[in-house]
């Protein structure tokens, strides 16, 4: 347009250039200081939106992991209790068989001793069935009470299920229903009570009790299997959530964080550029005709 | 040819060179004055016949130099472009500033923004779902819900205070416009009178140009030049300054963000109360921020707050507390400014999905899952953040581009109008030498006359 250069136009142009240099330098310094390339949404709108979604996903995964870990501990408690119950019941079965056969069958004192031990086992089983996790009975559903079974062996819990969400659409049951200890006539405490009474008074009826005891043992064992299955489901989900969490974390870091090496190089070259611009400005603006007039 | 015409010729040269030297001094003195246009001496040689006509006899011996006047070196096309570009730059820069300011209310993406707070709230619901009987989990949930509500309240307050600050700023801008318009009218008057009296008005015109540029930046005014030398100013076609009269502007409309919807902020002419049809520049950006941008984001955050309150309340009311009673609303208020946690007793959190199951966590799980719902609160909020991000980013880029364009126009404008010291020094040398030469001529003529008068008559 025009080739004339005036003092003001030159200083305006030099200033604009230096200012632009300095702004860019300041941006890089800010990125280096914060370690983030997205410190506000306008730095990179799509990246910021993605970062928000990733952060949301991350916090959800963390929740699922916490729930799964909590569920695993709960199931471990239940599993331990069921294992103890199972071995107690095996011992009870041995005792019942002993009491049903000679010589104990003909000896009321021996039967009384066996009945006494069985009564002890029954009480032991009751306390196992009242095992608690964080103050809540693991076999009592969602009951607010501290026990699942009262001293007579009848169920005082409720029918609620304790669920843990381990993924967006997956919930896993982490309690064991009271039916693990048999239901109705086959409920183990009733069966054991009946065995104790029959051993003392009516040994011939013990045979049918034994059948019911076997059914009870079966239900404890099947509950154990079910717990095992859910346990592995929970640990698998927890592992998966952990792995996803790590992946999401690294994705987020890739989005939000600066590439340190690149940033340092950028900063270096930008400062060199700025210094060069300053140097050139100092050289260019000093001389004028005044320097050469006598 | 008169005896002394040589002296007169030399005298006119001395006068002209001195005038030129003074002008050079003036140019150098104002090398850094904003809006100053360099001036150049216009001279013409005396001699010959001014109007050739029959019987006119040219006098070949009369001579000298005649100073026609001084000329401002200025390109009207570039000036007009500068007005347009400066108005646009002021608009875009102010818009960017307003958006950056709004953006700073969204502390995202970070570990302390609303999104992180919401994440903690959903986590709190999960904890209650996992241990409904644990009062610590319930208390923690209430605290987290209060933090979310407070974050929303803080954002609403942020919008309200930004509105007020922006409006105060606009009031100041209007005052500036009124002052500048009055001064412009005054200068118009002086320029017209000076020119009518045949006086030099270059410095006044320079001052006036500075004011015009300032008014285009402040209000996006357009200019038109009159034959008598005055400049008229229009805002969207309505006259702001006509010759030596200026109209005052005034600001009407709500002073608070809450009242804005019913009473939008409007810039009006003070005399007849009509709205200014199209204010640009800084004023335009401020009006846009007050009537569109701020209310828009405030409404968006109100929507987020309403969605949060309504969705959580709906699920909460479908559940049951530890005592088996139906849940009462969790949040009260449905705007970002008014939302707060309505329940104070942690046992009132309706975690159970069944009135008979005291410590069921089914409903708390449903509440926690609201955080994952597609199109739910989290998504809606993320969309608002994305919107401010994109708008701010676009505005920043536009204003960066505009800054480059404006700088180029300014450069071209200053190239024509600005003072170049080297050039001035050169013309200074030229005037100096010419002055010396003219005085030599005068001495020579003097000696000539001396010879003629003193030596011939003995």
Describe it for me?
Chain A is mainly α and 294 residues long. Chain A has a domain of 182 residues: f41 fragment of flagellin, N-terminal domain (Up-down Bundle), CATH 1.20.1330. Helices cover 67% and strands 4% of the residues of chain A. Chain A has six helices and four strands. A two-stranded antiparallel ribbon of chain A has the order 1-2. In chain A, strands 3-4 form a two-stranded antiparallel sheet. In chain A, a hairpin with a 2-residue loop joins strand 1 and strand 2. The mean pLDDT of chain A is 88. By secondary structure, chain B is an alpha+beta fold. Chain B folds into two domains: 108 residues, no CATH class; 328 residues, no CATH class. A four-stranded antiparallel beta sheet of chain B has the order 3-4-5-6. In chain B, helix 2 packs antiparallel against helix 8, helix 4 runs antiparallel to helix 5 and helix 6 packs antiparallel against helix 8. Chain B starts with a helix and ends with a helix. The model of chain B has no long low-confidence stretch (mean pLDDT 91).
Q: Spans of chain B of 5+ residues with little confidence (pLDDT < 50)?
A: none
Helix vs. strand class of chain A: mainly alpha
- In helices, the fraction of residues of chain A equals 55-70%
Largest interface: which pair? A-B, 56 and 68 residues
What is the residue-mean pLDDT of chain B, rounded to a whole number?
A: 91
Strand percentage of chain B: 5-15%
């Amino acid at each position: 347009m025009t080739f004339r250069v005036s003092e003001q136009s030159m200083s305006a142009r030099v200033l604009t250039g230096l200012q632009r240099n300095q702004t860019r330098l300041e941006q890089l310094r800010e990125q280096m200081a914060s370690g983030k390339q997205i410190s506000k949404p306008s730095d990179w709108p799509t990246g910021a939106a993605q970062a928000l979604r990733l952060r949301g996903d991350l916090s959800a995964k963390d929740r699922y992991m916490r729930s799964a870990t909590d569920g695993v501990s709960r199931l471990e408690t239940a599993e331990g209790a069921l294992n103890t119950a199972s071995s107690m019941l095996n011992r009870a079965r041995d005792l019942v068989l002993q009491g049903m056969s000679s010589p104990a069958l003909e000896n009321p004192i021996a039967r009384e001793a066996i009945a006494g031990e069985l009564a002890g086992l029954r009480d032991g089983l009751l306390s196992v069935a009242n095992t608690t996790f964080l103050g809540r009975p693991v076999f009592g559903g969602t009951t607010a009470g501290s026990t699942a079974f009262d001293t007579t062996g009848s169920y005082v819990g409720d029918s609620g299920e304790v669920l843990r969400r381990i993924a967006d659409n997956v919930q896993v049951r982490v309690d064991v229903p009271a039916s693990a200890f048999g239901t109705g006539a086959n409920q183990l405490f009733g069966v054991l009570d009946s065995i104790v009474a029959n051993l003392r008074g009516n040994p011939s009826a013990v045979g049918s009790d034994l059948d019911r005891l076997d059914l009870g043992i079966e239900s404890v064992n099947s509950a154990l299997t079910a717990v095992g299955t859910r346990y592995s489901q929970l640990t698998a989900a927890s592992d998966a959530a952990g792995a996803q969490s790590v992946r999401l974390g690294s994705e987020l870091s890739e989005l939000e964080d600066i590439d340190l090496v690149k940033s340092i190089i950028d900063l270096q070259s930008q400062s060199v550029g700025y210094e060069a611009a300053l140097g050139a400005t100092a050289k260019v603006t000093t001389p004028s005709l005044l320097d050469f007039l006598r | 040819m008169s005896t002394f015409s040589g002296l007169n010729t030399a005298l006119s040269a001395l006068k002209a060179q001195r005038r030129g030297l003074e002008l050079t001094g003036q140019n150098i003195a104002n090398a850094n004055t904003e809006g100053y246009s360099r001036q150049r001496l216009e001279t013409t040689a005396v001699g010959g016949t001014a109007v050739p006509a029959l019987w006119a006899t040219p006098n070949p011996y009369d001579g000298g130099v005649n100073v026609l006047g001084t000329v401002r070196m200025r390109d009207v096309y570039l000036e007009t472009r500068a007005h347009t570009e400066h108005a646009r730059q002021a608009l875009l820069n102010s818009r960017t500033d307003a958006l950056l300011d709004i953006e700073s209310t969204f502390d995202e993406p970070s570990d302390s923004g609303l999104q992180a707070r919401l994440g903690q709230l959903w986590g709190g619901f999960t904890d209650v779902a996992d241990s409904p009987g644990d009062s610590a989990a319930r208390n923690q949930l209430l605290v987290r819900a209060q933090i979310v509500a407070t974050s929303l309240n803080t954002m609403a307050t942020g919008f309200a205070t930004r509105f007020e600050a922006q409006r105060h700023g606009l009031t100041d801008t209007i005052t500036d416009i009124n002052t500048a318009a009055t001064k412009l009218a005054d200068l118009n008057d002086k320029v017209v009178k000076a020119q009518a009296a045949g006086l030099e008005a270059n410095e006044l015109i320079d001052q006036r140009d500075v004011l015009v540029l300032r008014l285009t930046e402040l209000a996006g005014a357009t200019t038109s030049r009159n034959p008598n030398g005055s400049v008229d100013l229009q805002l969207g076609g309505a006259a702001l300054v006509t010759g030596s009269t200026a109209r005052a502007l005034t600001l009407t409309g709500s002073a608070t963000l809450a009242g804005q919807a019913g009473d939008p902020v409007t810039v009006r002419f003070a005399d007849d109360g009509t709205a200014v049809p199209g204010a640009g520049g800084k004023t335009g950006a401020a009006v846009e921020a007050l009537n569109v941008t701020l209310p828009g984001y405030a409404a968006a955050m109100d929507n987020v707050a309403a969605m949060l309150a309504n969705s959580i309340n709906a699920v909460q009311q479908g559940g049951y507390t530890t005592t088996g009673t139906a849940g009462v609303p969790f949040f009260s208020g449905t705007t970002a400014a008014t939302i707060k946690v309505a329940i104070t007793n942690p046992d009132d959190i309706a975690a159970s999905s069944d009135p008979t199951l005291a410590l069921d966590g089914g409903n708390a799980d449903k509440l926690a899952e609201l955080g994952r719902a597609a199109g739910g609160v989290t998504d809606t909020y993320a969309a608002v953040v994305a919107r401010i991000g994109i708008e701010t980013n676009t505005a920043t880029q536009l204003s960066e581009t505009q800054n480059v364009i404006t700088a180029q126009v300014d450069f071209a404008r200053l190239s024509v109008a600005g003072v170049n010291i080297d050039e001035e020094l050169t013309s200074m040398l030229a005037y100096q030498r010419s002055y010396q030469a003219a005085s030599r001529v005068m001495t020579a003529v003097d000696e000539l006359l001396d010879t003629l008068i003193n030596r011939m008559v003995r």
